[in-house]
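Ticket #926: bound-state structure for beta-D-glucopyranose.
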Amino acid sequence: MPLVLSDLRADHLENPLALRRVTPRLTWRVRAEGTASAPRAHRIRITAADGAVAHDSGWIDSDATALEAVDFEGAPGSDYRWHLAVRDADGAEVEASAGFGIGLADWDAPWAEPVQERVLAEGPLEIGPEVFAPAADAAPPGERLHPPRHLRQAFNLPAAPVSARLRISSQGVHQPSLNGRPVGDGLLAPGYESYQHEISVMTHDVTSLLREGANVLGVILGDGWYAGRISILGRSAQYGDILRATWRLEVDLPDGSRHVIRPDASVRSSRGPIDWSDIFIGERHDARAEMPGWDEPSADAEASEGWTPCALLPVSVPLVPFVGEPIRRVRELPAQRILTTPAGETVIDFGQVMAGRVRMRVRGERGTVVRLEHAEVIDAEGNFLDNILGVNKDQADEYVLAGRPEGEEWEPLFTFHGFRYVKLIGYPRTPEPEDFTAVVIANDLAQTASFSSSHARLDRLVENTIWSQRSNFLAVPTDCPQRERAGWTGDLQIFAPTAATLMGVAAFLDRWLRNVRVDQDAHGGIVPIIVPMPPAMDDPDRPNAGLGDISDAAGWSDAITIAPWELYRHYGDPRFLRDNLEAMRTWVEHQTAGAAASLPAGLDPASLSPERLARQRLLWNGRMNFGDWLAPSTLDGSRPEAAGLDEFSAIMLAPQLTAELTGPLFQIRSLDLYAASAEALGDAVTAAQAREHAAAVRAAFAAEYVGDDGRIGPDMQGIAVLALAFDAVPDEIRPRAVARLVELVQEAGVHLDTGFVSVPFLLDVLWDEGHADLARALLVQDTAPSWLYEVDHGATTIWEAWNAVHEDGTVERMSMNHYAFGCVVDWMMRRLAGIELLEPGYRRTRIAPDLDGVLDHCQAHVDAPAGRIAVDWARTGAGARLTVEIPLGVIAEVALAPGWTLDGPTELTPGTHTLRAARTEEGSAS
Ligand code: BGC
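RESOLUTION: The complex was predicted; output attached.
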């Protein structure tokens, strides 16, 4: 039987048009139909557009399914095809091919800057209570915001093209069209990044949109992240207050000639039907002002009033190819029901918390204004409740009807909201559910895992996590899609293992990590707590930027070691380590220097013995950080220190109690991952040095904070979990530290009391230390704080706080869509379903279903780089049956809990295996 080749990818993408790297990593999958005949060798030839061979790897004797053609360098702006041949053990060959393009390294087109009103710079410059309260005196958006501009460039082509590419970028967000038809299906291009350092260029294949003769390129330009209200402050114009666009339309004609169309004196612009648009505030569209045909050759648009020439300006910021999946409409959800609330308001329920916006159909009189307000919850009485308060965080759209007798349809262009419910105001008729569709938007990442079991509520927990990931993998990885939409580095590192399991995040996070490094460089080696770091939070008087005293935060800034490591593990691509190793080094050196330079507040160096001083100088504990952020007992008043605290002080209690410990604990974590990364890249010397340093920090930590009785620092669950997970407890004390952790969990009534940074490790620590039953009990606990409490109280996403909705239905004004606590899904995949990555890229995988646990059956899969790894198991009377699917290129080992035996081999080769397990002892150990 022949081998079958599939999933040919360059830099993790199928047929990318414009890569940033000139030497792409090429990967593929091999499947054997019928009896497997293992691949033995492969050969890759890369051909240029004219067919010339640009690279020939020759036959390589290997069963690998990845190749970096090290001596190939693609030419910027060129297209290539790569031809893969694979030979099997019997010498039979199969072939497949795919394409990739290399993006431009330099940019030679000017900005087109339309005549426009400058964006008003408004909103707070500092974090204070008003950031989370509605601005009482804010003028209506119409008085503060400006209308997006429409740009139009007409040009002639002597013939229809054989091939054409549009490369386009903007300061602001853009929507391109050609001859009245949309270019591509992307939204909010070019996305969000540290614009002061570089801006992405989108590349589109527009061959089929052009024709001989007259053509028109249209571009609509909106504020987006560049000039609109963004991030935690909700402040506008953080990168600039003037919108611009630039493009290169490269047209190859049948006669072999190439025409490049750039912005020139012929570009005209006008305002259009959008009165204002802001990604936070919302958008207002006046259908009476639509300009049919404005981007088509037939229209006499330029003659009409209001179309003015654009200024042409040099582009001074680096423009770089956008590599990855664009933001798209990824789902559509019909309205579930339309409610009239006790307050008499009309509220549409879409049944799911999400990020997106509403497409609405409406028929009514010209000039009628329909307003849509968005929120994630309804309150205990069933009324619409705006759970997101804050300056400029209105989340409201308005549509002014043209009065078309056949009805009209509208979806905003340059905004999105975090919502499930929409309050409808001014709708001219009785609204029907079929007139409202929620359009979910996100970077269009493939879902790469599934989990379906006998436990419906756990299945829902996984679904909720996927929804929170979908809502927050939007331009950059964000904390939440409504209140802040900020690239909080901590949230991402916490969720990284789950993120990389559930979705194809390689290109998305590769792009974001580039921003992390750029922002780190701009902050003297400190990895900011938010990336892109919003300029308004950058204080020129401080070497770093951040929130109050917090700039380089344990568990946030460490994203630079954690995220690349997770990506390497999941995708087996060493470039994640290579690209980031230097940034990791800079970061751990910053921690080392910081440790030596400052001691915890209140610790007087003069009062310390030389030994203690030496130890303290090793520990990165002298700066404020977020600690074990939002640890439940610091918020619900159950800790003595929390008594009588107001809301803000209560939130800062976890940092106060734990920051001194999370600092050195994450210092250890970063040193370990830096060492592991150096080692994986073959640098044993660096690895050994980092390990030695980590050992010294561990010893100092233990001496300073770990009591002989196993109590650590403030004696809280989260700190115990981190200290055990990061191996910061001496072996002889470890059993007592574990016992104390178990006691703390029991004292909390079998509830977790872990905050953001410790929760990912809680269940693993308990499990690995012989308390699997307690880990399972925490997972299925359903009173707050717990994962299933949320599920049972109607969550359709993961909440920011475990009790965001109280037992009596009272709603906290928190985010209902923060993915951080969804990190447990990684654990569920490994420990319950039983698919655990052992070697990078899943090349070695453990299959260890939890046959003694809370599930009767489970079906789950992960799309590993080599192919699908799937389990399907069920308990049967005295035993269990297990079907395992392993792709070529992966070796699996089955590991059942003590007390179980397998009727087949424990090492599984590629293929599908059906196995039986029998219980050999009563009450197996767990
Ligand atoms: C965000 C978090 C973030 C945190 C920093 C919050 O306001 O929503 O998720 O990591 O601030 O502690």
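RESOLUTION NOTES: The mean pLDDT is 95.
TICKET STATUS: resolved
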